[in-house]
Amino acid sequence: MSEQKRIGILTSGGDCAGLNPTIRAVVLRAVEHYGWEVMGIRQATHGLMKDPPDAVSLQPQQMDPLLTAGGTILGTTNKGNPFAFPMADGTVCDRSADIIAGYHQLGLDALIGIGGDGSMAILRQLAQQGNWNLVGIPKTIDNDVGVTEWSVGFDTAVSIATEAVERLQFTAASHSRVLILEVMGRDAGHIAISAGIAGGADIILIPEIPYALDNVCAKIKERQQQGRNHCLIVVAEAVRTETGTPLTYTDGLGECRLGGIGQYLSEQICGRHVAETRVTVLGHVQRGGMPSPTDRLIGSAFGVAAVDLIAEDHFDQIVTWQNRQVVSVPILDAIAHYRAVNTTGTLAKTARGLGIYLGD
Ligand code: F6P
């Protein structure tokens, strides 16, 4: 048993399935094994910005429903960089000092930050500036955090996207249509290539590999000539037009968002009289619902390992999944190494080997 500690935990960035099992693991390990107190900080760093900080002591008995619960009981945000925080009057302000003060006001010995690469970069900067003891846990459906093979949330997102492809197969076949599924993933094509292979797509387009519309149409026609009159296309949201124009739109708050590649492909294919097309944009469905068993396992393993790092006074580290085990690496490494789809790696080879058109 180590000395009594009080640690904080927060979830930052877009939510995903698997966050609650991760929180559960942290609380069970810290409270029941080490006898520490865990303060759950609400709405990421926004909770620390408040005076008094918005945080609650988490008890093991509250954790029982969390293993199978989607989302995060702590709330989260992917808005409001503390170093350029948007104020009500339209100006931006550096609120880092308020957040740093929140950590010390809570009397924390360490903080576990669960987030993607953007959140990790911000939390690390706060930790350096404010003398915090920080341990990171990677989460993102995009699976683009460097140095970890798995981030919490990716497996569930892939399962949901795979199920969508499976469901679309039947309606595509019934109507002899080309059905296009646009999936999330930000700048990386991990969800698209994984769900595309697992769901039996014929064409998978990812931001990492340029494509030609002529070849997309040729693949559809090849299938038609074989008597296979339907076709499934999975496309990642950050794929651009054939000539490289990004497809984005401005939301009601004036923010630029990814979206529109599915519709673009549909118009191009239909416009060339190749086939009738329909588009499904899967959106936030990929982030919701029950965490998959794999995300429960990863989140649980990461949660336990993160608490053990604190017990060893081993900070500025992030837990990662490598070669079937959890190992910790400096947070800086995770921030420095972006993980795109390896265009000559196993999944790309598998897709090409199955005759899936990948764009090259
Ligand atoms: O990074 C996770 C992610 O779901 C991306 O795949 C997607 O582009 C983005 O977040 C959506 O963000 P928001 O929740 O702000 O719409």
Give an overview of the whole structure.
This protein has 360 residues and is of the alpha/beta class. The protein folds into 2 domains: 6-152 and 291-335, 3-Layer(aba) Sandwich (Rossmann fold), CATH 3.40.50.450; 158-288, Phosphofructokinase domain (Rossmann fold), CATH 3.40.50. Helix content is 37%, strand content 19%. It is built from 11 helices and 15 strands. It has helices at residues 19-33, 45-49, 96-105, 117-130, 154-175, 190-199, 213-225, 261-271, 293-311, 331-336, 346-353; strands at residues 6-11, 37-41, 55-58, 85-86, 92-93, 110-115, 134-138, 178-183, 203-205, 231-236, 248-250, 256-258, 277-281, 317-322, 325-330. The strands form 4 sheets. The protein has a 7-stranded mixed sheet, sandwiched between helices. The protein has a 4-stranded parallel sheet with strand order 9-10-8-13, sandwiched between helices. A hairpin with a 5-residue loop joins strand 11 and strand 12 (256-258). Helix 3 packs across helix 4 (117-130). The radius of gyration is 22 Å and the shape is elongated. The mean pLDDT is 97. The chain binds 6-O-phosphono-beta-D-fructofuranose. 6-O-phosphono-beta-D-fructofuranose is lined by residues 14, 78, 140-142, 184-186, 237, 258, 287. Residues 14, 78, 140-142, 184-186, 237, 258, 287 line the site of 6-O-phosphono-beta-D-fructofuranose.
Strand-helix topology:
Layout: E1 6-11, H1 19-33, E2 37-41, H2 45-49, E3 55-58, E4 85-86, E5 92-93, H3 96-105, E6 110-115, H4 117-130, E7 134-138, H5 154-175, E8 178-183, H6 190-199, E9 203-205, H7 213-225, E10 231-236, E11 248-250, E12 256-258, H8 261-271, E13 277-281, H9 293-311, E14 317-322, E15 325-330, H10 331-336, H11 346-353
Helix pairs in contact: 1-9, 3-4, 5-6
